[in-house]
Amino acid sequence: MAFSVHAIAGLKYDHYHRGVVFLRCDNNPQVNAEAVFNALKQNDQNRMRDKLEWWMRGNDSPSQWFHGFDDDDRKYCFVFKRKKGHTNHRYYGFLIHPQPNTDKGYRLCVLTNHAQKNVEATDPSETNFANTLRVHVDVIAAVKRSFPDN
Amino acid sequence: MPHYTSTNQDALVERVTSDFIGQIAQRLEASDIPQIELAKKLGRSESEVSQVLNLNRINLTLKTMMGYARALGMKVAVVAYDDGDPTNENGPVGSEIFTLSWEKSGKPRDIWSLNEASHSTSERRYWIHGWMCGSISSTFGGAFNTGAELRYIPQFQPQKATLTNARI
């Protein structure tokens, strides 16, 4: 499968020690975080950008906007949240240090899949999917292409 | 690519408001005050407060923002600053950066307290362009003549000026 990572339009990446990107895979509709984001109205996109940039600037709360996961098997998973009406939208992804040699402090959140839910608990299949992509050799290669480390 | 707030004034206003709401949401989370309790203090419905905290309702007046802050024991400062980015290519500096800088400086209440903080830390020096008033960057003497409220604005690239050679 051909994976690639893509910057989010309108965000500036050169000021921060953290970044958020979308993973793209044309052959796999489950990798849909970018497509769902792009389909949002401009205002709703901007409110998501507000939250993404808030995290990129170094904030680790509120969990109402985003959070990681404590349990060992999901410790690299991450989610950004959006609530509209009674519908909860979740953008799942994984965390990675893409440049351990040249910028080891830089942390990247690669958003992969989107889900809607009406219950508080996370569906494990969503984080499992992000976790699987995290260690996928082609995904690792795609991140390295966009974030060269030498 | 320019920042998403660079060409749209409404987007910039909303982003500044989002930053404020982020600070409120952080405070609420840290305080363990239930959202419904905050709503009661504000005299608003929990649904409305939820919409605000989730950034679905962000056309807040300064009075409303002050209400949220006061309900959580906080205050609000409206800060104008010049970050050397007149076309806003890079977007605004986050409000939490100003708060953290102020806290790191010992929460000074006036210019003299800030000076004392700088003297107490031998390695630490404050730079004269850290003091700004509106869009006018000025030394102390000039800033007091503008008639606008003075605020401490931390700069990201300190100048070489120190307290001893600044005109205080």
Average the pLDDT over all residues of chain A and give the rounded result. 95
Q: What letter string, H or E per element, gives the SSE order of chain A?
A: EEHHEEEEHH
Uncertain residue segments of chain A: none
Our Rg estimate of chain B from Cα atoms comes to 18 Å
Alpha-beta classification of chain A: alpha+beta
What spatial order of strands do you see in the largest sheet of chain B? 2-1-3
Q: So what's the oligomer here?
A: heterodimer
Largest sheet of chain A: 6 strands, mixed
What structural class do the secondary elements of chain B suggest? mainly alpha
Integer count of domains of chain A: 1
* Uncertain stretches of 5 or more adjacent residues of chain B: 122-168
- What's the number of helices of chain A? 4
Keywords for this entry:
heterodimer; A: 150 residues; alpha+beta; 6-stranded mixed beta sheet; 28% helix; B: 168 residues; mainly alpha; 2 domains; 43% helix
Would you mind describing this structure in some detail?
The complex is a heterodimer of chains A (150) and B (168). With 150 residues, chain A is of the alpha+beta class. In chain A, strands 1-2-6-5-4-3 form a six-stranded mixed β-sheet. Chain A is built from four helices and six strands, in the order ββααββββαα. Helices cover 43% and strands 4% of the residues of chain B. Chain B is built from seven helices and three strands, in the order ααααααββαβ. Chain B has 168 residues and is mostly helical. Chain B starts with 8 loop residues before the first helix and ends in a 16-residue tail after the last strand. The interface between A and B is medium-sized, with 25 and 27 residues.
